[in-house]
Amino acid sequence: MNSNAKPALRPYLPEDAEIAAAIFVASIEQLAADDYSEDQQDAWASAAEDLEKFSARLGGQLTLLATLDGAPVGFASLKGADHIDMLYVHPDYTGQSVGTTLIDALEKLAGARGATKLTVDASDNAAEFFTRRGYIATQRNTVTINGEWLANTSMTKTLAGDASGGAEQ
Ligand SMILES: CC(C)(COP(=O)(O)OP(=O)(O)OC[C@H]1O[C@@H](n2cnc3c(N)ncnc32)[C@H](O)[C@@H]1OP(=O)(O)O)[C@@H](O)C(=O)NCCC(=O)NCCS
Q: Which of 123, 124, 130, 128 shows the shortest CA–CA distance to 156?
């Protein structure tokens, strides 16, 4: 669905849990299908099955919700000072700068708080997105979730001297 609106951001609230979980699951099912098997996607998406736990994870981090025309379409979270834990855009709204707007904001917030770098364990389908934003692969990992092995890549971006994340307004 193409919207002419620019993505807007607001902090994640506990009442966003259901919509964030729906975005998370749809994003994995539709955007990760080329790189992960159905069993792997199910294991990955199972993190949203316990809504309370999922919401506590988002609420315990610096989580931003992106909206288009007021409707939530994606979210991203910063764990600790300098690790991107989650970045998910609803498949109906990709390619509209939602992911870029979210990561620009997290990079600025982390930089303003004194972080000199950001790290992310990027899924294979998202690695190119991060590479385009200046993240460099540092390590290949395999993690096990619900008995399924999933590969990802640890990536780092240096923020020192570029706390704006390269996004001039
Ligand atoms: C990766 C993701 C967040 C990108 O969101 P998005 O809103 O479509 O990203 P944007 O519209 O801001 O795209 C910015 C640029 O990256 C490109 N891009 C976006 N996703 C890409 C991908 N998966 N592979 C390659 N390029 C990608 C876009 O084409 C765009 O390029 P342009 O600037 O030349 O036009 C989204 O595809 C997603 O939610 N993926 C599934 C969940 C996931 O794996 N999350 C990461 C967990 S670490």
A: 130
Rg (alpha carbons) of the chain, rounded to whole number? 15
Is 165's pLDDT higher than 50? no
Q: Which atom of ligand 1 is nearest to the CA of 84?
A: 48
Q: Hey, what CATH topology would domain 8-115 get?
A: Aminopeptidase (3.40.630)
What burial letters (b/e) apply to 84-99, b meaning 16+ CB within 10 Å? bbbbbbbbebbebebb
Q: What is the pLDDT of residues 69-97, one digit of tens each?
A: 999 999 999 999 999 999 999 999 999 99
Residue 159 beta carbon below 6 angstroms from any ligand 1 atom: no
Answer positive or negative: Cα dihedral of 8, 10, 14, 20. Answer: positive
Question: Domain residue spans in the chain?
Answer: 8-115
CA dihedral 61, 90, 99, 4 (to 10 degrees): -130
pLDDT digits (tens, 9 = 90+) for 13-40: 999 999 999 999 999 999 999 999 999 9
Instruction: Ligand 1 pocket test: pick from 28, 94, 120 the residue with the most ligand atoms within 8 Å of its Cβ.
Output: 94
- Ligand 1 neighbour 161 (Cβ under 6 A): no
CA of 143 relative to ligand 1 center, distance in Å: 22
Q: Give the SS3 label for residue 85.
A: strand
